[in-house]
Write a structure and sequence with these properties.
The chain has about 280 residues and is an alpha/beta fold. It has a single domain (about 65-280), classed as 3-Layer(aba) Sandwich (Rossmann fold). Helix content is about 20%, strand content about 20%. The chain has a 10-stranded mixed beta sheet, with helices on both faces. The protein has a two-stranded antiparallel sheet with strand order 7-8. The longest helix is centred in the first third of the chain and has 15 residues, at about 80-95.
């Protein structure tokens, strides 16, 4: 695994001086709060439903480690709602900052909006909220770059500031199970971020696009309705133990009334399904 070059972590800047690190008032500690680690039951004898506690996804904070969390499912099934709930819980349970990459702002993440990392350097964040949402600028043909956001997270880690990198759609950085050319910091975050306080929360409509590091390092996979190749990839990666794939294919999708959407299952690689359906709420 390629180690980070903290002297100039912004991709494409080999011929330029490092950009100034955005100011983060009041952030100087790398100590994560210590909530009680939730236990996901694997002994349920019948399928039950309930609200999904964000702690079930952020259990690693109880051990002083950064989380790696994946969300998969068709569009309109509830992934954005779950991501917002997890981000809010992270800010409540950690002293870290949320760095969300949300093209166009469509996922509705809470935080201080900036165009990209350059815009944050020019306009440092206020003390609160401890979240920045990079939305790009469609009028100037500028998209937020998850790779630059991940690079920023590692620069903050060098200052002992923990963070959660949020990628609302992994397809901008990966395709067909491989990272796109020049993407270094995102796989580094998946594989090595846990012990350095650099967490990641990623989502994808097509699990077959998610590279190995994203799958195998995710402690929890939040799964909404999927069918076809997406389910095949989950099976290949060892996430479907104890669950009939048809139970996932029959979860509510965008064809269902909005009030019925949002049901999901929490899957852990190599462990049996807990026989529960969940719904996140913000």
């Amino acid at each position: 695994m390629l180690k980070p070059d903290l002297s100039n972590p912004i991709p494409g800047g080999s011929g330029r001086s490092p950009r100034p690190l955005p100011a983060l008032p009041g952030m100087g500690a790398n100590q994560l709060l210590q909530p009680t680690a939730p236990q996901v039951s694997t002994r349920a004898k019948s399928v039950v439903s309930g609200n999904a506690p964000p702690d079930a996804c952020l259990y690693s904070l109880a051990f002083g480690e950064a989380p790696c969390i994946g969300l998969v499912g068709d569009r309109g099934t509830g992934k954005s709602t779950a991501m917002r709930a997890i981000c809010r819980a992270y800010l409540q349970r950690s002293v870290g900052v949320v760095l969300a990459c949300d093209k166009g702002g469509g996922s509705g993440f809470e935080g201080q909006r900036r165009v990209d990392v350059d815009d944050l350097a020019a306009h440092p964040m206020d003390p609160e909220p401890r979240a920045v949402v990079f939305v790009g600028d469609p009028h100037a043909a500028v998209d937020p770059d998850p790779e630059q956001v991940a690079a920023l997270a590692w620069r903050l880690s060098a200052r002992r500031v923990p963070s959660l990198v949020v990628v609302d759609e992994l397809k901008w950085s990966a395709r067909g199970g491989w990272w796109r050319k020049g993407v270094i910091w995102l796989p580094q975050t998946c594989s090595e971020g846990r012990k350095h306080g650099v967490g990641i929360l990623w989502a994808s409509q097509s699990p077959q696009d998610a590279p190995r590091e994203a799958f195998e390092e995710s402690g929890i996979l939040v799964c909404y309705r999927l069918a076809g190749r997406g389910l095949d990839r989950l099976d290949e990666r060892g996430y479907l133990q104890g669950i009939d794939p048809q139970q996932i294919a029959q979860l509510p999708g965008d064809f269902s009334p909005p009030a019925e959407r949002g049901r999901c299952v929490l899957l852990r690689r190599g462990q049996p399904w807990d026989r529960r359906f969940y719904r996140f709420s913000v």
